[in-house]
Predict the structure of Manganese/zinc/iron transport system permease protein.
Amino acid sequence: MNYTLWIILTGCLVGVTCGMSGVLLMLKKMSMIADAISHTVLLGIVGAFFVSQSLNGLPMLIGAAVVGLATAFFVESLHRSGIQSDAAIGVVFTSLFALGVVLISFIGDQVHLDTKHALMGEIAFVPWDTLQIKGESYGPVAVWMLGTVLVLNLILIAVFYKEIKISTFDPQYAKLIGVPVAFVHYLLMGMVSLSTVASFDSVGAILVVAMLIVPGATAYLLTDRFITLLLISGVVGILSAMIGYGAAVYWNVSIAGAMASATGLLFLAAFLFSPKHGWLMKKAKQRRLAANS
């Protein structure tokens, strides 16, 4: 596979992995916690480096998952204590992210991680960081990480599909019938954390946030069925990656930025032209009703 296809594949995997995880947060009205987790995992990555002296593989995933779950726990705890949820997210988000930024300064020049790299990322470098086994190259490390997390997320969704669906749409009823709502909640936070850190190093926090929030919001305008919502969200993520890469090459601009912008364009198209929820479709329906009255 050539250089271009590796970049497109990486973008598509980010779109599917983050899109399908983010849609679950959107349904629970917790989309902005995706923004918090996508930044606070920096603390988990830095912490994992201090422990393992490496930014690759399992230690990084574990560190990010721990901090992602801690972020969700702290936000939930503050919210239950009486603080508004948006304020709780803001407090935890800024505090943990700032701590991660401070700790980066202790790393110095030992690794390629800095705040600019963390926020922007550079997907164009993905094909150069390959998995080497006995001198043989098996493709970019980012593709293997994203593919592994995607498979894990799909398995978790399949195994806990009923519990996720019920606790998402009616948490009170879920508690009455014995669904472990708290477990499902932190399971979703773990999925988001793993999806974020698998994408973080290659594409940066900005594209991660866009893929976690916008594909799910776009899909929500196009369907009311849960399983279809998950599928459309993944498709929107893939289309955003492909359209964004084409635009980035044509105009010679940031690839990750173009992919994030493409998510906004697809959302705008759905917002305007969705058969049921589209703004233009609603206006046309109102005019027809007015003309017939």
User: Anything to note?
Assistant: The chain is about 80% helix and 5% strand. The chain has a mean pLDDT of 88.
